[in-house]
Design a protein that fits this description.
By secondary structure, this protein is an alpha+beta fold. It is about 55% helix and about 10% strand.
Length: about 575
């Protein structure tokens, strides 16, 4: 079954076609355990948080140790010294590495945005020269895109490259900021405009080329063990052969690399969320107040149950997406797609889902670290437990790899582009089928199954999109609040469907699972919460339209968001008690 990005809104997905975390094989689970063991030994045993301002040698040494375990070449082809793991396994790597706190950012920048531009766009010569040494961390990498006045609007950057015809070099001048690994990186992927070009170009720039200076380490709220500096280029000479990709292709390179970074960040966020939940469960068991363990209080059970629900939901959608990317790669290989385009096209196909999951998972992480700290009470506010470090580190995930606001607008904008410009998704045809479905719904023809509830949400999204487009026309792109609400509905639909499909697949492959009842309850609880969120977003959109009293739209909203019958309090408590009994997140 061929799956296209964004298709989930208009097509039915079969449970057997998706990947679920319960399907990890022995080798993949061994990789996760190896990473956790490494982090337990090297980082979690430390008495205090590493600081890039004073512990840079330790951080570099840690990166080199991880390379000896093969962790720095996961996405690099074997012929260049890497292991070239499939994309979904790379997502598992990011989840596992999250236990390393700020080191996850350090190694993440090295193996992802710092090296993937060469993996995806490099010439044979560039790959042979750099990738083997990147895989061993002999060469350490950084990604230099952001500038003081060019953050979300990356293509407005002012860094310039002029060509020196005599020496066959590009001469780069400009400033970059918030550059991860800048304090020790040997190689920078630098984005600059050549002469008066409209779009950026990309360059492979070695520190030893000269003309590069750095600020001191940035003083940040979190990820203090991650080196972050400004980088200044003053007449920096870059050989002509170090142009990466084609001239003016840099902006496209940046966007495509960020598709990978977004979904990998989402996986890392889930790893951090699980860590925060496990800490909360363990402390709630140990801590006693009023003669009882605090895990026995229903207020604590609510928090634990809600964290579990959010984590289960997010990971269901993340690894569904990762496997879809792998499947797309295999499809492109069979169709004889040029080798250097396969990974890029597969990622590009699921740009919508990558953006949605970056938003959803980073906000799950923020919820989990906040509630974990709250369960720890005063001890959570103390440096002693390490909980406050996770709280501070998590906040950046809603900002880098594109802010959550930008990603919300990007997801919807990409959907509209594929619907009306490239014609890859036929939203219009899907919308014409809605009236008959609504008539059946109004007269209650047929049982309102979970599958039908999710279909209703998809229909509502199409209706809200049409009403918004009719009201504003081309000016809809300026109505950012409406777009972000539409994007949130998309995200809730994708996640809720992923949870449902995960449980349905479990029934197919492991119907006797002792946790199956709990996971079915998670599905119901996810639908209950998704309904509340979708209803809120739908009403926000309706209230923002010029005709806020449109009775037809209000009717659609009411009929398509009937609250599922569920006792959410009882369900959360039951889920929490199961986790407390096991003493950790185990689903």
């Amino acid at each position: 079954m061929k799956i296209k990005g964004g298709d989930f809104l208009i097509k039915k997905t079969i449970a057997s076609s998706i990947f679920i975390p319960e399907q990890w094989n022995e080798e993949q689970l061994m990789l996760k355990k190896m990473i956790h063991d490494f982090l337990e030994k090297e980082i979690l045993s430390l008495k205090e948080e590493p600081q890039a301002s004073k512990d840079l040698n330790f951080i570099v040494e840690l990166l080199e140790k991880s390379a000896k375990l093969g962790l720095c070449g996961l996405s690099i082809e074997q012929k260049y010294g890497g292991t070239d793991l499939d994309f979904n396994t790379c997502l598992l790597f990011n989840e596992a590495m999250a236990k390393g706190f700020s080191f996850a950012t350090t190694i993440g920048a090295h193996v992802s945005i710092g090296s993937l531009p060469i993996v995806y766009y490099g010439t044979k010569h560039q790959k042979e020269k750099y990738l083997p040494k990147i895989a061993t961390a002999e060469i350490k990498t950084a990604y230099a895109l952001t500038e003081p006045n060019a953050g979300s609007d990356a293509n407005s950057g002012k860094t310039k490259a002029t060509f020196d015809d005599k020496n066959k070099n590009f001469i780069i001048n400009g400033q970059k900021m918030w550059i991860t690994n800048a304090g020790f990186a040997d190689l920078f992927i630098v984005f600059a405009k050549i002469e008066n070009d409209k779009n950026l170009s990309a360059f492979i720039v070695e520190r030893k080329f000269g003309g590069i200076t750095f600020s001191e380490e940035e003083k940040k709220l979190g990820i203090k063990g991650s080196s972050t500096r400004q980088v200044f280029f003053t007449n920096c000479p870059v050989p002509e052969q170090n142009l990466l990709g084609k001239r003016e292709e840099g902006f496209k390179i940046a966007l495509n690399i960020l598709n990978s970074g977004r979904i990998k960040l989402a996986a890392g966020a889930i790893g951090g969320s699980k860590f925060a939940l496990d800490k909360a469960i363990q402390y709630s068991i140990e801590r006693k107040q009023f003669g009882k363990r605090i895990c026995e209080f229903t207020a604590m059970q609510y928090k634990i149950g809600e964290m579990a629900r959010k984590i289960f939901a997010a990971e269901s959608a993340i690894y569904r997406t990762g496997k879809n990317i792998d499947n797309k790669e295999n499809e492109l290989k069979k169709n004889k797609c040029p080798e250097n385009e396969i990974k890029l096209k597969a990622l590009r196909e699921f740009a919508i889902e990558c953006a949605l999951m970056k938003v959803y998972s980073s906000e799950v992480l923020d919820y989990c670290v906040d509630e974990s700290l709250q369960i720890h009470g005063g001890m959570g506010y103390s440096v002693e437990t390490g909980i406050e470090m996770g709280y501070r580190d998590a906040r950046i995930t809603r900002i880098y790899e594109g802010t959550n606001e930008i990603n919300r607008m990007l997801a919807f904008g990409e959907l509209i582009k594929r619907s009306f410009k490239t014609k890859e998704i036929n939203l219009k045809a899907a919308g014409t089928k809605i009236p008959l479905s609504l008539i059946k719904q109004f007269f209650k023809i047929g049982k309102l199954t979970t599958e039908k509830v999710i279909e209703n949400y998809k229909n509502l999204f199409l209706i809200l999109s049409k009403f918004s487009a009719d009201a504003f026309g081309l000016d809809l792109e300026h109505e950012q609040e409406i777009i972000m609400n539409l994007s949130d509905i998309m995200g809730e639909i994708y996640v809720a469907e992923s949870v449902y499909l995960r449980v349905e697949k479990l029934k197919e492959i492991n119907i006797h699972s002792t946790d199956l009842v709990n996971k079915e309850n998670l599905t119901r609880l996810q639908l209950y919460e998704a309904n509340l969120k979708i209803l809120q977003c739908a009403n926000n959109i309706a209230d923002s339209l010029p005709n806020t009293r449109n009775k037809l739209l209000r009717f659609y909203i009411r009929i398509l968001t009937p609250q599922p019958i569920l006792n959410p309090t009882k369900t959360r408590r039951s889920l929490a008690k199961q986790l407390i009994e096991k003493k950790h997140y185990s689903w």
